[in-house]
Structures are given as C-alpha cells and as structure tokens.
Amino acid sequence: MPQRFSHQRERIYQTVLERRDHPTAEMVYQQLKPEMPRLSLGTVYRNLQQMAREGRLMELDGPVARFDAVIRPHTHFRCRTCGALLDLETVPYDQALDRAAAARGYQVTGHSLIFTGACPRCAEQEHSA
C-alpha cells in the first residue's frame, strides 16, 4: 500500500523527476541538503527504496544504485569512463523479448537493458589522447 507523501518524500521524488542523470541517493541528498538541513542521507535512501518498491521510481543496478522517474520500458547507456547513465530514448524497447520469455513460462515483471561503453565526450577524449 503506498504511503502518503510527506514534504521530504515529495521533494525527494520531485528531485529525481527533475534530473535527467539518474541520481544516486547521495546526489539527491546533496541537492536537497541546503534547503532541508535536517534531512539525512538515510532518509533519502529509505524513501527512494520505498518509492521503487511502490513502482513510482525505477531502481537501476550498478556499483551504486541510481533512480529513474521514467518507469515505462526504455533503454539506458552507461559510460564506463565517466560513469554517466543516460536514457536512450531513440532505441525502442522490443516487446518481443517479453513475449519470448513468457512463451517459455517466465512471468516478466520488469526488465533492465543497459548498453555500456564510452559516451560521446569520453570517446572524443580517448580518441584525441
């Protein structure tokens, strides 16, 4: 059952919604700390986890958990050099993947497709080095 949104919880959610870089709990905390001095990193993390369980946010696995307010199926790109995690809106999700899993008896409740490599900026720096 979804919890009611407190002011802190609402600001945490809005921060993730406004950012396009799939922030970590630490990134959200650092952004909100000046306006909410009593906010703790633990509170941010617990709220992000709860909103992910409720389906309001998507949690993206990696060395550090990142959060995405875009919960519809879409793909991501992770730069191995700078660590950026970006949406690949132009790469359509192929629902045939879900159908193939279902045909084998799997009950798909979600997916995560993350391409990895070098982002354009890092690739250019590597090329010019």
Give a written overview of the molecule:
- The protein is of the alpha+beta class and 129 residues long.
- The chain has two domains: 7-68, Arc Repressor Mutant, subunit A (Orthogonal Bundle), CATH 1.10.10; 75-128, 2-Layer Sandwich (Dna Ligase, domain 1).
- Helix content is 40%, strand content 16%.
- The chain contains five helices and five strands.
- It has helices spanning 7-18, 25-32, 41-54, 96-103, 120-128; strands spanning 58-60, 66-68, 75-79, 85-88, 113-117.
- A three-stranded mixed sheet has the order 4-3-5, with no helix packed on it.
- Strand 3 (75-79) and strand 4 (85-88) form a beta hairpin.
- Helix 1 (7-18) crosses helix 2 (25-32), helix 1 packs across helix 3 and helix 2 packs across helix 3 (41-54).
- It is flat and about 50 Å long.
- It starts with 6 loop residues before the first helix and ends with a helix.
- The model has no long low-confidence stretch (mean pLDDT 89).
- Belongs to the Fur family.
- This is Transcriptional repressor.
